[in-house]
Amino acid sequence: MSSDQDHLKETDTEARFEFKKEENAAVRSGKGLTEEVIRMISEDKDEPDWMLERRLRALEQYHNMPMPSDWPGMPDLSELDVEEIIPYIRPDVDKREGVDDWTELPDEIKDTFDKLGIPEAEKNALSGVGAQYESEVVYQNMQEQWEEKGVIFCNMDEAVREHPELVKEHFMTTCVPPSDNKFAALHGAVWSGGSFVYVPEDVTVEMPVQAYFRMNSEGMGQFEHTLIIAEEGSEVHYIEGCSAPKYGTHNLHSGGVEVFVGEDAHVQYSTVQNWSKNTFNLNTKRAICEENGTMEWVSGSMGSKVTMLYPCTILKGRGSTDTHITIALAGEGQDIDTGAKVYHNAPETSSTIESKSISKDGGRTNYRGLVHIADGAENASTAVECDALMFDNESTSDTMPYMEIEESKVDVAHEATVGKIGDEDIFYLQSRGLDDDDAKKMIVAGFIEPITEELPIEYAVELNRLIELEMEGSLG
Amino acid sequence: MARLELRNLHAEVAEGDEKILEGVDLEVQSGEIHALMGPNGSGKSTTAKVIAGHPAYEVTEGEVLLHLEDEEFGEDIEIDEDQRTWNLLDLEPNERAALGIFLGFQYPAEIEGVTMTNFLRTALNAKIEEREELFEDEEGEEAEEEDEGFENSPMEGPADDGEVGVAEFQGILQEKMEQLEMDEKFAQRYLNAGFSGGEKKQNEVLQAAILEPSIAVLDEIDSGLDIDRLQDVSNGINALRDEQGTGILQITHYQRILDYVEPDHVHVMLDGQIAKSGGPELAEKLEDKGYDWVRDEVYGTA
Amino acid sequence: MSAGTQVHANLTEEQVREISGDLEEPEWLLETRLEALAALEELDMPDVIRTPGRDWTNLHDLDFESLVDPLNAAENKDQVGPEEAEVLSWSDAVQEHEELLKEHFGSIVDPQENYLTALSTALFSTGTVIYVPEGVDAEDVAIRTEQNSRSLFNYTLVVTEESSSVTILERQSTGEEAEEQYYSGVVEIAAGENSYVQYGSLQNLSEEAYNFTVKRGVADTYATIDWIEGNLGTQLTKTEVSTTLSGDSSETQIVGAFYGHNDQHFDLDAKVWHRAEHTTADLVTRGVTDDVARSVYEGVQDVGSDAWDTSSYQRENTLMLSDESEADASPKLIINNHDTEASHSATVGQIDAEDLFYMTSRGVDPRSARNMLVEGFFVPVLEEIDVDELRDDLEGLIGARLRQRD
């Protein structure tokens, strides 16, 4: 076993996520969304004019769009007051692009990421690491061998300055335009930080690159933007982790993710989301897949008060493939509304969606998904499978798939089941010596096993720890 | 030595008032093989489940006692005088398992996503830990509270917690599987998921071999087995008795398995009671003549 | 957004009074109608599914002003049944069973649920009341309606007393065709304790017609409501079939069959509300889309928090016979009690090429082979039908439509 697991074990998981640091900001915007705030962010970042213009246009669109309200079973967003959110906090670090040596970070930030086990993981299992604290990336590093092959892994603000042609072409244009939805528009106006990944033709980045996002301050919003461009025949696995300490007021996370999967390229995007239970987590994630490209989304949603997240893949090129693996766990006071969207816009495209959800202690999970097969997408196939496990009668488990099939030469299958944790199964395990709690934990671990086996071992461990932690409350 | 004692056991379905057991008296000692036979609905499976603590049944009268001798669980665990007799009805199913009760299920649960290896090692370590708790001196009770949970992928199970580590356990598992002539690949398959009926039964015996119970109750372990597998399973049961001194209570419909696993005692169950007990010859007589003569004899003389 | 501006301009209280007066209705019924009329202004069209950029059904473009002609309703109607049960026309029911109507009318389908239910309540001029007394077994009740006017508003009430049973067929077709016609139907079923209702419907209106129907039942303890929903006609149908399982151990089955061709648009909802213990639901819909037809299916299995020990299953299968047709589906699970076994599945595809090849390799010509496979596809649905006339005619109409194609 690798040493980062030892590290994980040494620290109590709860302590690792729940600690909070004194806020120590260099720059901090006012609350709410005004042109002044947007100009101040852009100026503080020393951005080119074109980016400021994009921000202002997005702000206008944000103000002109209504909050989504007519979705059946939509989570309650009434407690979210975007005007009360602080959209931008730049932590007090010396170097604006982020350092590439952990020891150069201020102690309290370094300590944060140490506790989260990031530097240890970097040594053992990753090709590169970025770490964002509040609105800015404070650490960014990639192994030299990848740099030599032309791989770019830098923070998004740096990319705006250093790689303007790539960013201009791909940033919130064809993939996630601000007009897509209200929170995408919000994101376009106030985005800050995040990662830019560029993988040149035929390069396979063997170990994953990871970004870790941490919100520390009360009442802030984090709006990082991730842009991944995988050129023809390339391959990359991007992992993001998120956490924040608990506060009395609400935080907002509204990230934007755009992935361009080139011909024959392969991108995996994995997320382990553990935002604190006062966070509204409203994201827009989308990938466009060219011919024979493959996009894989792996999402574990354990944290947040409300999550609305439906990673989307547009299968644009013939023979392209999408895989969605989603796990959601909702406990007390949580509404995890998550799923998948796939547009089959070309022949011979295929998608597979696997969703597992667990609801307990009054929490609600909902699978909300859309599969669209466009006219002419001959021999497209899609298989959706949703399984839900319920612990108790206070909880809710919904499943709301939508299928739009405009092409006849297709293979479309959707299946869903909902059930309670089985008494006979628990008894069987108990009769072999496991106590009631361990029996339930084992059944849950088995229930999500098809998901965890897709993750690198370190993250499977992390996911299991988090789920265990979430379950502690309801057991015993 | 251990001795399982059922005294005047009455039980009914927990949700409802249908009586199923109406005064069962039965004793099984370490090293003995008992066959419990009887027609459908006579209460055999219920007896097994009540011994193991199935929550669907409610005991309305009587006792299930387990008598232990010192060193039943080896030298490391000291069993005080006042801990020699346990009323199993007061205990959770997992505590009963820790005291050496094993139930081989007629219909084992299928649990997706949990590998045999992970499950059995977890069970083995849970048993060891629970025993320590049950037989611990009063003073030292504080320490062992914290639950470590799974730190590893559920494919492999926890890597380093528990008495028996991964490597050691692999050795144990491999050895037992060879004894039962089971394919190695079973170790990485999910618990009973997609197993054939015969594979499930074989797996139940494998679990008994690994958990080394004092008393094993095997509920229709022989149903649905072809002759080769019946022999493998029988060898496994005999090995339990011969090598570990396990006492066996074997519930069966058929004489067939008794040709391979020769019982010391045979009991006939009728209408929720043990109607007749005897030696191996009783089983042969049942095979020839069915159960009606027992009924006539019992109710005729009553 | 209110849809009310579309039609109420040319609808008046006087028209509603005239309809109610002709039927010699008591004051309370007139009041209910007038309230529904007044509510039109406020009410919305029934919900339709929306996904980003798409409405699955568009009801707002319907020109109700020209479609609705309240005082000139014309039809041919058969209302027949066995002697044991009462099968009454609406006007007879008003005279003979006012108390029964008072108890049940509007109790299951809220007249003001949406714009179209309110319109139907205000304007219906014909209908049927089926009353099955305690312990009576009534077979083969049939209501056959032939629409001969621009618009026709119909109402059906079924009440079964304890331990009774009834099988019903209600069918609609078009007599005198007009360029555009509108049929609106509301069906309420109150299934008493331990009673059984099978209500089969066969909608075969002209392909110029528009159709809106709501069929809803409430099942008491140990009661069973089985629906058969056959849709073949109209250019646009919006229909909902649903059961509220309000009594312990009640059951329902919703079986649907549709065959859309040309430019037909079917929006079909099947819904079950589990509201008591030990209830069971089975939703099965099979349909075919051909030419540029579009089918929209929404299935909802809603398990309330008091619905312990629920079993709920749903299957929807669509066969696409042409490349230009579209099949949309949204089978939803809303589960608020964990003591539930629920599942749904949906498939969309073409006729299996292997099956087709197998049959043609045995010498069957491709056209016949295809027709046999499509007819076979509907068999599981046809088998559920108790009323011979419904089963035979549905099968016949599907066969005829298949043979009509080249």
TrEMBL record, chain A:
Coiled coil region boundaries: none
Similarity comment text for this entry: Belongs to the iron-sulfur cluster assembly SufBD family.
SUPFAM superfamilies, per database record: Stabilizer of iron transporter SufD
Organism in which the protein naturally occurs: Natrinema salsiterrestre
Domain SUF system FeS cluster assembly SufBD N-terminal: 138-210
Superkingdom, natural source: Archaea
UniProt xrefs under Pfam families: SUFBD_core, SufBD_N
Protein name: Fe-S cluster assembly protein SufB
Classification via InterPro entries: Fe-S_cluster_assembly_SufBD, SUF_FeS_clus_asmbl_SufB, SUF_FeS_clus_asmbl_SufBD_core, SUF_FeS_clus_asmbl_SufBD_sf, SufBD_N
GO biological process, any: iron-sulfur cluster assembly
Entry-linked NCBIfam families: sufB
SUF system FeS cluster assembly SufBD core domain residues: 213-447
From TrEMBL, chain B:
Region (Disordered): 133-163
GO molecular function list: ATP binding; ATP hydrolysis activity
UniProt keywords, alphabetically: ATP-binding, Nucleotide-binding
Species the sequence originates in: Natrinema salsiterrestre
Gene3D superfamilies: P-loop containing nucleotide triphosphate hydrolases (3.40.50.300)
One Pfam family this sequence matches: ABC_tran
Biased composition (Acidic residues): 133-150
Keyword Nucleotide-binding attributed: yes
Residues spanning the membrane: none
CDD domains linked: ABC_FeS_Assembly
All copies of domain ABC transporter, residue ranges: 4-296
Coiled coil: none
UniProt name for this protein: ABC transporter ATP-binding protein
Lineage, uppermost ranks: Archaea, Methanobacteriati, Methanobacteriota, Stenosarchaea group, Halobacteria
UniProtKB/TrEMBL annotation, chain C:
Domain of life: Archaea
Parts forming coiled coils: none
Signal peptide start-end: none
UniProt cross-references to Pfam families, sorted A to Z: SUFBD_core, SufBD_N
InterPro entries, sorted: Fe-S_cluster_assembly_SufBD, SUF_FeS_clus_asmbl_SufBD_core, SUF_FeS_clus_asmbl_SufBD_sf, SUF_FeS_clus_asmbl_SufD, SufBD_N
Location of the SUF system FeS cluster assembly SufBD core domain: 146-377
GO biological process: iron-sulfur cluster assembly
Domain SUF system FeS cluster assembly SufBD N-terminal: 74-139
Similarity remark: Belongs to the iron-sulfur cluster assembly SufBD family.
Annotated protein name in UniProt: Fe-S cluster assembly protein SufD
Species of the source: Natrinema salsiterrestre
Organism classification: Archaea, Methanobacteriati, Methanobacteriota, Stenosarchaea group, Halobacteria
